Amino acid sequence: MRFWRNWWQIVIFSIQHDPPQFVEYLMVSFAIALLVKQSLTPEWPYLVLSASLAAGAAVSMWVRVLIIPSRHSKIIKLLGVALIIYSFGVFAELAPYFP
Fold it and tell me: Which of 12, 28, 78, 80 is deepest in the core (most CB within 10 A)?
């Protein structure tokens, strides 16, 4: 029980301390979860939603780094580039299916 209370306090602290970063973590977590779901049941809507969440998280990360520079700016920018490459790859893969 103490573990869960401590975990919940950490979550609340991170929400209060840096809300945009928490939202980005949620978006990336949902994107990964949807990618796993899509790999288990191959349905394209999960893949499209995963790519959309990844692109949104990448843009949010870039805007946050531009407004408030941090000591991890290079890592955040690289993660954003990786998420955009993933998104464009998914959209390019699915483009032939939509006329």
Answer: 80
